[in-house]
Amino acid sequence: MTEGILIGLTTALSLQNIFMVMIGCFFGTIIGMLPGLGPMTAIALMIPITYGFDPATGLILMAGVYYGAVFGGSTSSILLNAPGVPGTVATSFDGYPMAQQGKAGKALAIAAWSSFAGGTLSAIYLLFMAPSLSKVSLSFRSPDYFALMILGLTAIAAFSSKGQFLKAMMMVVLGLMLASVGQDSLSDITRFTFDNMNLTDGISFVLVVMSTFAMSEALTIILKRNDPTAAAKQVSLTELGSIRINKEERGKMYRTIPRSSIIGFLIGVLPGAGATIASFLAYGMERNLVKDEEKEKFGKGSVNGLSAPETANNAACSGSFVPMLTLGIPGSGTTAVMLGALLGFGIQPGPRLYMTNPEIFWSVIMSMYIGMVILLILNLPLIPYIARILAVPKNYLIPLILFFSITGIYVMSFNNFDIYLMIGIAVVATFLRLYDFPMPPLILAFVLGGLMEENLRRSLLLSNGSWEFLWDRTLTVCILITTILIVLWHIYKTFTKNKS
Amino acid sequence: MNINTTKIISLLFFIFSAFYLYTAYQIQVFAFDENAPFNARTFPIYLGYAGLFFSGLKLILPDPDTIKVEHRTLEYKKTAVLIVIAIIYGATILKVGYFLTTSLFLFASYYFLGERRWVLMFLLSFPFVAGFMYLLHGVLEIYLRDPFLKSIGVMG
């Protein structure tokens, strides 16, 4: 492990990779601030550029964009009451009232330090947990992997669907269907290509991500007449106030940060959960744990109320890397995009990653520490200026997003068909978004489609076509029971919600 | 049954799944694979049934869907224009080349979205694309095909 850490540290500390973390954090912060454009869009737009680098650098860049976007989302939550990403909604509960009281600078400082501490602590948890989990996951067999993928897809459908579980499951099936287009990996038989040569190799992952996120988000903004940059024009550079945190406030943060980082990290590790649930749970837990007088301040500018979700959402980001790096199964839509990009590099994440490609495994973890420091430096003094950059009118922003999306596909395929297909999928995705059909389950399913079929194939062949493999191993049974519990819990929740 | 757009989308997905399932059954597999526990059509067949199941449930179950989309407030015209420009861009990019088509695509998009600051529009199209091309082609060594620039001798 020490050798791996040293390899990772050397890779992460190379001038190129430090520069990549900086670029990623900066770009992610800007995109994260824009309401409606989340980390998935930011990462999707970066994918074509990452293919110009080696896999470790590419992943470091994407990781930087990821936590930069979560960090940036908190800034717009505090200054504008317009969360850039869902994971920072809870930040606005106390961050915005604090800004309204003329303490925007202080709120930003608390958020920045909490994010820094949450991210750093969870990177430490990741450092110790990932290799152990990798060792455990070496005992996983095909049926366990198949069950784990079912769990991941069910969980993301349950958690990201805002009560519309069936809609999310339809998106899961659609994602798997899109993944099944092209040559079968074992027999080379073409499927669903309708004699179109352009579909023989299947639909490109970058195409699906770009069209369902970057492009369809841009079209949705135009269609709904939203202006993600409008609120940024109101930010005043002169009214942010002091960024100094006093002793009493620091004392409150010292108590909040460790417990929120643990809950954030653990929630992040769970498939499908992620920063949004982590931040709400941490906020709720903190309100229950503080003294009554502090409880009164929640929603009116509480230091604990701001620090808890900020710590948790950043901790969850690091946590979500655990299933991706150790099992090769992404726990969230964002890490699914990263997994897809890694597969594009020809790297198969999984339990053996930290043995076969230690420089990738460890450098990503090590770069997180560097990223957190960069974000701290970036966020505290530069945020008001970065927020100013956001005053770019949407008339420029939207064409630029479309331009980056189409360029991404063009440089990868040099093919008109892919551009048409991309526009077609983006139009359908825009329409589906209007009616609250969630896109993250589709992406996760698309990424996992090939692996899922492969593991089902192996399991069925080994069991001679019998479905007994589902209950032959204790581990498989445990994973499937968890899946059933998630479904039952969701049905119960929907039922009680409808009743009330 | 309350008919709303979500139900119509579910119905369309049901029909799509049925078509997918039909096509899955038509996948040609090798003769020796025909009766194997798993072949190229097995997984798609399961997916087809899963699609029918979930969309069927969505169709049958009562839906307290409260999503109301105000179509009158939606900006269909600008969205459609943007999509058409993107299609034209896609159709011409290979023949004309990356630089000219991308610059024109950006310029036209700014214009149709209501921008009229000509200098800024120009700066954020032609020089911007040239700079981006330099980053991709010159710095990151990502190949960009451009017959137009090649014909005037700018690109090798």
Describe this structure in a few short sentences.
Chain A is 76% helix and 1% strand.
Question: What topology emerges from the helices and strands here?
Answer:
The complex is a heterodimer of chains A (500) and B (156).
Chain A: H1 2-12, H2 15-33, H3 39-50, H4 55-80, H5 89-137, H6 142-160, H7 165-179, E1 182-183, E2 190-191, H8 205-223, H9 247-269, H10 275-289, H11 292-297, H12 303-319, H13 321-327, H14 333-344, H15 353-356, H16 358-389, H17 394-413, H18 416-434, H19 440-462, H20 469-472, H21 474-499
Antiparallel strand pairs in A: 1-2
Helix pairs in contact in A: 1-16, 2-3, 2-4, 2-16, 3-4, 3-8, 3-14, 3-17, 4-5, 4-12, 4-14, 4-16, 5-9, 5-12, 5-13, 5-16, 6-7, 6-19, 6-21, 7-19, 8-17, 8-18, 9-10, 9-12, 10-12, 14-19, 17-18
Chain B: H1 5-26, H2 42-60, H3 76-96, H4 98-112, H5 118-123, H6 126-139, H7 147-151
What does this structure look like?
Chain A has 500 residues and is mainly α. Chain A has one domain (2-499). Helices cover 76% and strands 1% of the residues of chain A. Chain A contains 21 helices and two strands. Chain A has helices at 2-12, 15-33, 39-50, 55-80, 89-137, 142-160, 165-179, 205-223, 247-269, 275-289, 292-297, 303-319, 321-327, 333-344, 353-356, 358-389, 394-413, 416-434, 440-462, 469-472, 474-499, and strands spanning 182-183, 190-191. Chain A has a two-stranded antiparallel ribbon with strand order 1-2. In chain A, strand 1 (182-183) and strand 2 form a beta hairpin. The longest helix of chain A has 49 residues, at 89-137. Chain B is mainly alpha-helical and 156 residues long. Chain B has seven helices and no strands. In chain B, helix 1 (5-26) runs antiparallel to helix 2 and helix 3 (76-96) packs antiparallel against helix 4. Chain B is flat. Chain B starts with a helix and ends in a 5-residue tail after the last helix.
